[in-house]
Design a protein that fits this description.
Elements (H helix, E strand, L loop, with lengths): L1 H5 L2 H29 L5 H26 L1 H21 L1 H16 L7 E4 L2 E8 L3 E8 L6 E10 L2 H4 L2 E3 L6 E11 L4 H16 L3 H14 L10 E8 L2 E11 L3 H16 L2 H12 L1
Antiparallel strand pairs: 1-2, 1-5, 2-3, 3-4, 6-8, 7-8
Length: 285
């Protein structure tokens, strides 16, 4: 009847452990008794022997139990490692999001109100969390600057493996560029003057505040001074066209509005006076 019981390995190991522990305690008791009754006269030496006997008892007991339960301990260790690996795999994205949140908070790559572009997702930051960041989408594409009406929830894990483009230098103001193409046989200097006039007029209400804000930012971070005044830079993409690159200072979130304002004013300036007056009369009627 006891044979099936002994078939369970852990029962025999449990009994062996009890016998081993009892034997160890008995040996400890005999050792301490012999040391106390030994002819050793030095109290210091006897104290050291007693301490050594107690320590050896503990070490022997631990090593003996490890040897007796070695198979079970090995199985348990493998199970624990497998569980840890499975847990890490299952929570990988969560851990990456937490690390991304810590990275974002420690580096200060952007703040609420900034307009950012990460992994082809572009928008204005409206809230930040430890796991995700919420954006008001701006687009479509990189050339448009209107809110699409959609909200993007970006996992913070993306900030660990993707470049984050912050389109707002100081958090309040940034520099915005866009291209106005013209034909190569057009008078590009005249178009440059029209664009510059339109840009200066559009930026006049906020130019001084933008200059002060951006200069303060560059000075505090030991960055070379940035020209804030509107600029027009001609480039030649091909033999038939000239691109006039317009760069202006803009308040955060106002890129699209100012770009449309400048383009409208530029189109009015390049329109012949007779056509301009006709369109104005039509608008008035």
């Amino acid at each position: 009847m006891l044979d099936p019981l002994w078939d369970h390995v852990w029962i025999s190991q449990f009994i062996a452990s009890i016998i081993f522990v009892v034997t160890t305690i008995l040996l400890r008791w005999l050792s301490i008794r012999w040391i106390k009754k030994s002819p050793i006269r030095s109290t210091e030496l006897r104290r050291k022997w007693l301490s050594w006997a107690q320590q050896m008892t503990y070490v022997t007991a631990v090593l003996g139990l490890i040897i007796i339960w070695a198979t079970e301990i090995q199985t348990l260790a493998f199970s624990f490692v497998a569980f840890a690996v499975a847990f890490i795999i299952a929570t990988k994205e969560l851990v990456l999001c937490l690390m991304g949140g810590m990275y974002k908070a420690s580096t200060g790559i952007f703040t609420v109100g900034d307009r950012i572009n990460v992994s082809n997702m572009r928008g204005q930051v409206v809230s930040q969390g430890i796991l995700s960041t919420k954006l008001l989408e701006v687009g479509p594409g990189e050339s448009a600057h209107q809110y699409t009406g959609r909200t993007l929830t970006v996992p913070n894990a993306l900030f660990l493996s993707n470049t984050v483009i912050n389109e707002t230098i100081t958090g309040h103001f940034g520099l915005h560029s866009f291209i106005v193409p013209i034909k190569s046989n057009d008078d590009w200097r005249q178009h440059e003057d029209w664009l510059l006039e339109a840009a200066e007029q559009a930026c006049k209400p906020h130019i001084e505040e933008a200059r002060s804000n951006i200069e303060s930012f560059t000075t505090s971070r030991y960055i070379e001074s940035v020209t804030v005044n509107p600029r027009i830079i001609p480039t030649i993409p091909d033999a038939d066209h000239i691109d006039l690159v317009v760069r202006i200072p803009v308040p955060a979130g106002s890129e699209g509005r100012l770009q449309r304002l400048i383009i409208r004013k530029y189109l009015q300036l390049r329109q012949p006076k007779s056509e301009s007056q006709t369109s104005e009369n039509e608008d008035a009627s």
